[in-house]
């Protein structure tokens, strides 16, 4: 007797989860959409695990299947045997069959060990979004009814321009001819360049320190006098600084040139590639080479490189880290007797920024922090002005010892103390082979991270020593550290709030709720223009450099710049993945009803948490058309939020809401 006759004898309500017919899925009413009957195909039994069946996902029928493994819940991958099917021992099954797989444990108070490699680490957005079982088919576009609309949304990506080359920053400069002078002639006038450099120092150097301001001022003066004195490596770094400066310069300033900020950004990125390609970055790399590559990583993180994908970040960062290791930046400067104290300090500064970028990318891509064996000392807690010129080069005259205040380097010294802990956590939670962290160790790491963050915030709230560190800059640095730490805390507690363990560890649930809200409040704060904020105060205090500059070159280079309408939107773009992860975690806590079940005076009400989520989603909408990754992120978050809204209202996910989701996602400003 064939399978169809066997299955026809089983009443529909008796069919267990995991067994269904292809005919019933395609046409459950036994008729076509027009209401006319059709010739029934032979019913074929399709065997899938119960989680994949519930999520309406394709199952590869492994034990456990790859989807359950990638979601971090291999122990939940179970198959229900059909009524009447015999077990291997010949007896009747009791209903649930759990495959015996090496390394898989049954659910217990501790999270199960991963039986196979996780395709995406715990910090990857897919791992987080996959926890929202009802929404995942719509996020992924696998729901058959939603799929046409999903394809329409993806079709909007065609509106985004992309570069012919995806090898940035190592691609060919296709806009320019192979002439150095022609490339330099394509740059804007000196006053615009000065403004862009000023914008770069005010923003990016506050969190990703790479360049000494006074040394760069001398180099820029040399550029105005005769650009032939400067190497291609320096020019590549210079153009990358200009490209990033475009992201924070008020639009009206660039509009005065007759070109948009986006046009100028593309020009500078092409020029940077041109000069890097013609330099000896591979055979004779220097600190300037590393700076240029770090700025290229930042540009990719900002999504200003058109046509970029997340995987490109991993490959580029791998190259940068290996280059730094080859140059021994990860080693103590005392091991090298032939370098000056100034060069030693610059090496320390660059190495901390490389570590920061590596950690950020590991969290964004769900991969591991690449290099952990290093003994480099942290930068000195001094101001840039403590380096002075002499006939023998730059010498250090630190005046910070008795100050008790913050300096230009205070942020980096605190960051250097946090990175080893955060890196160890990220490497553990994103590892495809390491078991989940024991809960007692999670608590210890949580406490340690919070204490270090509190200490750093206390120090950064001190009055500055000297004129180089305005309070607004230190406040931004403290907020940035807060984002890094709380994103790490979300990853640390992931295994104890995922579907397998949901509700069993109250402290982890509360920690995730708190960290999500801290991140989103920071996100919303960065999008709210402050009343009295000097957007470029972080680049002040170089009056000596101004005095030495010619009137046509760097006059006003470090003077305060006119405030941008969104002074910290650039930082929001740089950390957009951190805020996206926080939104997904908050959506999951709202879906589980944690704000109703957990009464904690430190937590807001459910309605207040929902309002914070909606405010962040609106900010995401306003930035969605910056790049394809921004757009994809917004689509996923919009679908998740709409599914949550439907479920909270007791409505089916697919229904009238499908048009609302499409309308909301399609309304992003172009």
Automatic annotation (TrEMBL):
Superkingdom classification of source: Eukaryota
InterPro entries named in the record: Sec_Metabolite_Reg, XnlR_reg_dom, Zn2-C6_fun-type_DNA-bd_sf, Zn2Cys6_DnaBD
One Gene Ontology term, aspect cellular component: nucleus
Matches recorded under SUPFAM superfamilies: Zn2/Cys6 DNA-binding domain (SSF57701)
Any Gene Ontology biological process: DNA-templated transcription
Record-annotated Zn(2)-C6 fungal-type domain positions: 48-79
Keyword Metal-binding among UniProt keywords: yes
Primary localization class, coarse: nucleus
Region described as Disordered: 21-40, 70-117
Keywords: Metal-binding, Nucleus
Localization of this protein: Nucleus
Gene Ontology MF terms in the entry: DNA binding; DNA-binding transcription factor activity, RNA polymerase II-specific; zinc ion binding
Protein name: Fungal-specific transcription factor domain-containing protein
